[in-house]
Amino acid sequence: MFTGIIEEIGQIQSIGRSGRSAVLRIKCHKVLEGTKIGDSIAVNGVCLTVTTIQKDGYTADVMAETINRSSLGALKPGSRVNLERAMPADGRFGGHFVAGHIDGTGTIEDISRDETAVWYRISAEPALLRYIVEKGSITIDGISLTVAGVSGADFSVSIIPHTQANTSLADRHRGDIVNLETDIIGKYVEKLWQPQDERKKKEKLTREFLEENGF
Q1: How would residue 210 be classed by pLDDT, with cut points 50, 70 and 90?
Q2: What is the pLDDT at residue 201?
Q3: Is the confidence at residue 39, as pLDDT, over 70?
Q4: What does 82-107 look like in DSSP terms, one character per residue?
C-alpha cells in the first residue's frame, strides 16, 4: 500500500529487454534507506519488487502484462521516474489509499497556468472516467492529486508549482502518456453490489413481493 506522496525522483540507468519483459535499473538514494530485496517500490505509480540493491540504485523486473497496461514500456535510459516506498505501519498518511496497481493510462491533452496553479487536462477511456469524481482522489504517475473537474472525455487536476518541480510532471508535455489509478473505494463498492444484484434477480421471495401481497 502506498500514499501517493513521492519520496524521490529516480533516473532510469538501463533497461534490459527479454522478450516482452524487462529489467529496470534505477538510480536513486533516498528510497534505498531501509529497503531490502523483496520490498515494494512504486515506480510512476506501478508497484514493482526490488530484485537487487546497489549503492546508488536497485533493479526491478517488469512483466509483459505490466508493460502492456502502463507507460513503463516507453521509459528510456535517462528518464526520470517518481519513486515511493510502501507505507510503513507507523508512517504518516499524507495522500490517499494507493494500491500501486494502475487501472490504465491517460493522455495529457493540455497544460496551462493560472497564477500559481498549473492545470493538467487528461483524457481517458470511459471505463476509467466512471470512477473519477470531482473533488475525489486520483493517482497520476504515482502522485496523489485531487480531481478539479470531470467531463465525458477527460478530467482536470490543478497542482502547485512545488508538486510539479518535485515530481516527473515537470518533464511531461501535451501528448504524453501517464499512468492512472482511480480511487480504490469506488471499485470495491461497485464489486460488492454486483453479486447482490445478481442474487436479487434469482430470488422469488423478495421484500417487494411480500409488501405487494400485504405482508
Answers
A1: low
A2: 55
A3: yes
A4: EEEEPPPTTS---S--B-S---EEEE
Contact 60, 51 (CB under 8 A): yes
Produce one character per residue of 173-205: b if its CB has 16 or more CB atoms within 10 Å, e if not: eeebbbbbbbbbeeeeeeeeeeeeeeeeeeeee
Per-residue pLDDT at 205 exceeds 70: no
Q: Name the grid cell of 91.
A: 508512517
Q: Which long-range contacts (CB under 8 A, 24 or more apart) does 27-35 make?
A: 27/56, 27/57, 28/56, 28/57, 28/58, 28/83, 29/56, 30/83, 31/7, 31/83, 31/84, 31/85, 32/57, 32/58, 34/85, 35/85
Question: Quick one: pLDDT at residue 203?
Answer: 55
Alpha carbon distance 199, 197 (integer Å): 5
Q: With beta carbons less than 8 A apart as the criterion, state whether 133 and 148 touch.
A: no
CA atoms within 13 A on the CB side of 188: 5
Cβ atoms of 142 and 84 closer than 8 Å: yes
Global pTM reads: 0.85
Closest CA to 21 of 79, 66, 80: 66
Backbone angles phi, psi at 210, to 5 degrees: -65, -45
Alpha carbon distance 210, 161 (integer Å): 60
Q: What's the DSSP call for residue 78?
A: T
End-to-end CA distance of the chain: 48
